[in-house]
Design brief:
- With about 450 residues, this protein is mostly helical.
- It has a single domain, classed as Sodium:dicarboxylate symporter (Proton glutamate symport protein, Orthogonal Bundle).
- It contains 20 helices and no strands.
- Helix 4 packs parallel to helix 15 (about 315-330) and helix 14 (about 295-310) runs antiparallel to helix 19.
């Protein structure tokens, strides 16, 4: 390489660092999000041709999820050293998830009573949708134990992967010093996965642009007008839960700054909103937990992956609100016991909801069945709302992801497993390692 070529190369590297890598991820995602919405409005259905940009990002993120969960949970459990500690952490974490989901469902029910989103709604023209029967509790418990761990990894069966990772880690711990070489390999593999997460996050702005352009181009912004009160209720429920309940938990239980939490979590929340997928957001959550919140790997690598399967505050809130919408659309007056059942069942179903778009729509049928609404009527209601569900799903997924991050932060704080000074200063940008250096915060 000649001197002139070397100077040109240095100038190119400097340009990309200054105008891409040195800019915090969220400051690149927000303009991409806005530009995607604008292109979707201008181009209309033609903007769906940009969907592939979003699909590439989502596939890259989801490609990492299964191996990331396996290696990080295995490394985290090994890092704890004592399996009893893991059990205590799991019980406390599950209790917090269940409590916050119950509060979210209550908020959804109360908003349904206040806004009356289903009053006067006509279901004429709605096409019934097939509602699959849910699995029994015994079937759900058995499914956690994988018959074939490799198949569970291939299919992305999160609970089965988590179970096998914990079981495998306990087996490694029982080997003592003989397991040390394997522990080193697992630790290195976990670090490799986190490095790949940073690489994938560099294409997040492009993916968000493609996803938003396609979504708005296909459905338009008018989806909120068609079911405006339900959309307003969903928005209010998400904002109330995120800004009051979640920040309250951060302030009261973790004794940390809610503002710092929101600033640090913004990257993961934007990814969650644009992809409507808790699974696709997990790699960003893992990076934020360690780099911006100062949460020790032993906590981040165990609590966050487990939370992908049960952190469902947004889902609990929406299922309760949607059930109120359905009752009102069918002109049914619920009793006090019906309202309690709606909140209780919404909470229990949300904790076991699959991390896929629009899952809450089909869970509504189980809630409605306990208050005497038939599957036929439920299917008709699903058919009415499903065409408009994309943007609603984006909002509640954002709250689900925040639930997971709040839980991890509270657990880490209560156990003394975080660097509070890192949280207080905001840590370092997620893209610092991808840029090849520790960039100062801008």
């Amino acid at each position: 390489m000649t001197v002139s070529q070397d100077v040109k190369h240095v100038a190119q590297v400097s340009f990309w660092r200054r105008y891409w890598f040195d800019i915090p991820l969220w400051k690149r995602i927000i303009p991409a999000f806005v530009l995607g919405v604008a292109i979707g409005i201008v181009w209309g259905e033609d903007a769906t041709s940009l969907q592939w940009l979003g699909d590439i990002f989502v596939r890259l993120a989801r490609m990492l999820v299964a191996p990331l969960i396996f290696f990080t949970i295995t490394a985290g459990v090994i890092g704890m050293g004592d399996p009893k500690r893991l059990g205590s952490l799991g019980v406390r974490s599950l209790a917090l998830f269940a409590t916050s989901a119950f509060v979210a469902a209550t908020i959804g029910m109360l908003l349904g009573l206040a806004l009356q989103p289903g009053a006067g709604v006509s279901l004429v023209g709605a096409k019934p949708q097939t509602i699959e029967a849910g699995r029994t509790l015994s079937e759900q418990l058995l499914a956690i134990i994988p018959v074939n761990p490799v198949q569970a990894l291939a299919q992305g069966d999160m609970l089965a992967i988590i179970f096998f990772a914990i079981f495998f880690a306990i087996g490694v711990l029982t080997l003592g010093e003989r397991g040390r070489p394997l522990i080193d390999v697992i630790g290195a593999a976990s670090e490799v996965m986190m490095r790949l997460v940073i690489f994938v996050m560099e294409v997040a702005p492009i993916g968000v642009f493609g996803l938003m352009a396609s979504a708005v181009g296909a459905s338009g912004l008018g989806v909120f007008i068609n079911i405006s009160l339900l959309a307003l209720g969903t928005l209010l429920g998400c904002v109330i839960h995120l800004l009051i309940v979640h920040t309250g938990l951060i302030a009261l239980l973790a004794r940390l700054s809610p503002i710092r939490y929101l600033r640090g979590a913004v990257d993961a929340l934007v990814i969650a909103f644009s992809t409507s997928s808790s699974s696709a957001s997990l790699p960003v959550e893992m990076a934020i937990a360690e780099k911006k919140f100062g949460i020790h790997k032993s906590i981040a690598s165990t609590v966050l992956p487990v939370g992908v399967g049960i952190a469902r505050d947004g889902t609990a809130m929406f299922v309760a609100l949607l059930s109120m919408f359905a009752i009102q659309a069918l002109d049914i007056t619920p009793s006090t016991s019906d309202l309690f059942l709606i909140v209780a069942v919404s909470t229990m179903l949300a904790l076991g909801a699959p991390p896929i778009p629009s899952a809450a729509m089909f869970m509504m049928a189980a809630v409605l069945s306990v208050v005497g609404i038939s599957d036929v009527e439920s299917a008709l209601l699903v058919g009415f709302i499903l065409p408009f569900d994309r943007l609603l799903d984006m909002m509640r997924t954002t709250v689900n992801v925040s639930t997971n991050m709040v839980n991890a932060t509270v657990m880490a704080s209560s156990l003394g497993e975080m660097e509070r000074d890192v949280f207080a200063t905001g840590g370092q940008p997620l893209n610092s390692e991808a840029a090849g250096e520790n960039n100062p915060r801008r």
